[in-house]
Amino acid sequence: MTDPRPAFPRGTILGYPRIGRRRELKRAVESRWSGATDAAALEATAADLRRATRTRLAELGLGRDDSSIPESFSFYDQVLDAALAVGALPERFAALRGEDGSIGLDAYFTAARGEGESAPLEMTKWFDTNYHYLVPEIGPETAFALSHDRFARQVAEAKAEGFTVRPVVVGPVTLLALAKATDAAPDGFDPLSRLDDLLPVYAELLASLAAAGADWVQLDEPALVSESLPVTPEALAAAAERAYEVLGTAVDRPAILVASGYAQLSPEAWTALAAAPVEAIAIDLTRGSQPAPAPGLAGKTLVAGVIDGRNIWRGDLAGAWAKLDALTALGAASVSAGTSTSLQHVPHDVADETALDPRLASWLAFADQKTVQVTALARGLAEGRPAIDAEVAEAAAALADRRSAPGVSDGAVRSRALALTAADYDRGDYADRVAAQDEALGLPVLPTTTIGSFPQTGDIRRARARHGRGEVSTDEYEEFLREEIARVVTLQEDLGLDVLVHGEAERNDMVQYFAENLDGFAVTQHGWVQSYGSRATRPSILWGDVSRPAPMTVAWSAFAQSLTDKPMKGMLTGPVTILAWSFVRDDQPLGETADQVALALRDEIADLEAAGIGVIQVDEPALRELLPLKRADQPAYLEWSVGSFRLATAGAAPATQVHTHLCYSEFDVVIDAIAALDADVTSIEAARSRGEVIGDIATSGFAHGVGPGVYDIHSPRVPAVDEIAELLDRAVSELPLRQVWVNPDCGLKTRGYDETVESLRNLIDATRSIREKVGAPA
Ligand code: GLN
Ligand code: ZN
After folding, report:
1. Per the confidence metrics, is the pTM higher than 0.90?
2. Vertex 711, ends 136 and 656: CA angle to 5°?
3. 184: how many CB neighbours lie within 10 A of its CB?
4. For atom 9 of ligand 1, which residue has the closest CA?
5. Residue located nearest, by CA, to atom 6 of ligand 1
6. What DSSP element (H or E) covers 12?
7. Is the CB–ligand 1 distance for residue 687 below 6 Å?
8. What is the pLDDT of residues 225-247, one digit of tens each?
9. Is pLDDT above 80 for 640?
């Protein structure tokens, strides 16, 4: 700590998208997985991508040799990168290690994707984002040791190209806090208890980075902001204090930037980091506010996350400047400008969106534009605020233009929202609805249904793509969809399902279809964002007041209903999920935007009813994932999110059966919210532990219809009749018979037809056997 370290640059981004401007990494890894290309080809593509990123970031104004360019590449996931670097490869994959114990790229992919009987690492959402990371497994037996040298190799690779980059590695506290205990661990084992064993390996990793030429390293510690982890903020802060005491006093290391992001650091963690022997701390000033003064800052750089890493809006540079300015009062050695998080959550470049309305495009900033905003602020810090007058004025003009543009505020939408009263959110008495629905629908006990989508075959995807390219006329495409619907309806009748669906063949995903049909949304051509591994989504942009120019789903549902006497379930995506999976406007509270979407859906539901649809499902798989990280923010969130669902559905007649569907059901966490949705029937994913979910429902006292998924749709495995029957048996023994529905975990769109038909046949057979057992007509 006595030798002088190179100063931290005046501006930086905390990370950059790694999938490539045209998803080159996706294609390269998937062709490696299929065996079409070899490891060397993949390595070469990855090296090209890394070089393109460094070169681009230097073009955009980050320094080539001052550590302002983050080295944040990952083949699959940054948490997996760190877990395997320290040797946390689960025992079931041990045979994949090299002779010297090292973990190569093939082993890395196998841990991510599984192989034969060996299940992959579990995947779950990264904080409150749509990115999924792989959950490390750590137990008392995990032998930490440096097991791959990718981080150091990338630093050296950059060096050889003339760049001094700043490697980005998930920090030790976050790695352990996000880990789950291995199966071998005793009950109640806390991975964080292994911190002292892990730190020497991190110290070794830091030494290897220094040896490769890194002046700075960024250790990402977003766990230190969360109040939603099993570990308390106090325990996390204590772990951070310990970790950075040890790493900070390691003799041989680069300067350390500890980066938080995603929200405000807990006060305990802030105090601990401020006092720790590290050189810089990055804080989120978009979702967090200026922290309190803390001892120990005098020698440190504060990297102020003033440019939002998670939305696609051009930032307000004057506002950002004011935050940088205010931060100087904390007495740190220096203040640098930064993004609030890695830019992995936004697409590459607005300039690629040639089909977007230029006026809308001028309000946007993707990763490249955000980098430019950061470098402008950095120049202001170096040369004084007048040096960036032009940039500040330009950003202000774009914001003003956005505020005044037609469509951003729509008088009719606004007055309708203003006129809402409590009655608009209330469907009335549940018992009355049950009676009306029993009469209208006449369903058997243990009604069977699916979650909505049927397999999206290559034919469907090709037809959609050809229609998109104009190679197939709309008439032809719609005829194709009707044939597809007819096929799916016949199949369901043959199988003997009770409530049918049209199969969602017209939708590419749950949100874009609605975004394309609603005013206030725009869709991008290249706005891909990594969801997990090689998967990316293209979120729509919700930029203005939302309204529905015309019915969106009615023609498909009505056509499907015309083919059958069984009830046809209309399928909509709920307001919370539409918001969660889009880039949402940041100029009004989310709750107001959600209510606008809800009103559009409410009109759609009225039109579905008028077209003779008596069962309508409004999917809210994202209800849990938007739950704020801070407990204090959760009640307000639940209030508006539940409210928007109720607003969307409360216009439905008592005889109309409203369903909802939720994925990733940590049922116990959001049970009150689920009950407050007041849907008539809720289907929930129970893949991980079915028994537990049934038990949770029973103890919660939840009294409406409920379909805990009886089989996992994430794998092609066909569930046996006995297996499903056993679950149903448990469900009917713990819950009142009239409450229980039978359905798979989630939509079937990613499955093939062979396994789908077999699985549904087994589901029906199992249902019949349980109906018989409980003495109901089969
Ligand atoms: N209705 C959607 C489907 O069946 C629900 C998908 C989801 O919950 N993610 O595909
Ligand atoms: Zn689902």
Report:
1. yes
2. 120
3. 13
4. 621
5. 747
6. strand 11-12
7. no
8. 999 899 999 999 999 999 999 99
9. yes
